């Protein structure tokens, strides 16, 4: 029931958005609006997404298909995309021409002011039970992406959106068989054209890491968003449901991003969660240097002072905001070894850093 706000993820997120004044240029949904292609679930899932997008005052909402959004088992239709194409209400893309390209090519470039999104349908080949076991992008699609970017590439923020993961994501015993076929070739092309972020769903496990592209040594951040409202998420993956906002900053030299995450906790609603088992509440991507250098700079700023305001450190070393979770943890450990203690984890935006080498 929606009247039980703290137990209803949609009603709870709407209240959070209103209370915190959260806004977004675009709402992005990486697929699986329903379970096992259930029609009413699909209609409700997309309606909920539209509600959230309106509350965020987004300019538009963009989605892709998940494996559960495709009737590959012929449960409701003898055409696997019949339900998805019949949802309407701007699904998956509001612009009719862009939507037609998405259905026909299995992908579409959305060119917007200051940024572009490549929306990929990794469920494009889910025509039957066997083909639905993996995501896939065709070689012709990868060639199309390469040719398009060769002609149209510029310094816009460039984001790829898909449902399935393009590189291995088998932690938490989640398996290796559902990866995108030709995914490594896809990310190599995205790296060649200096894409700034790859967002995917499917794994129910929020995770942020880099893929090191071979051709130009570009590091492509790959962000698994986790799930928003899967009721069995804890039993499947031990991970809770999550909701994210992403800010991306780009100039001629580099691109950085920050991600804020809220976690849904039953009977408490959406919370900023910082326990060790969850995804970092505040994290980022785009740092290009060495963690040891950051530690040395922090140590130099603290010097012989006992306590320093952390915001003063961030002001002088803004790169700290753009560390992925594994880098943040590594920096925390280095600081501890140097007897520099934060008042909380980096993901908690600590208030101070203390130099315990200094005698009281």
Automatic annotation (TrEMBL):
Domain Calcineurin-like phosphoesterase: 11-206
Sequence ranges assigned to domain Calcineurin in this UniProt record: 284-336
Keyword Cell inner membrane in record: no
Source taxon at top rank: Bacteria
Keyword line: Hydrolase, Iron, Metal-binding
InterPro entries xrefs: Calcineurin-like_PHP, CNP_phosphodiesterase-III, Metallo-depent_PP-like, wHTH-Calcineurin_assc
Sequence similarity: Belongs to the cyclic nucleotide phosphodiesterase class-III family.
Name of this protein: Metallophosphoesterase
Native organism taxonomy: Bacteria, Pseudomonadati, Bacteroidota, Flavobacteriia, Flavobacteriales
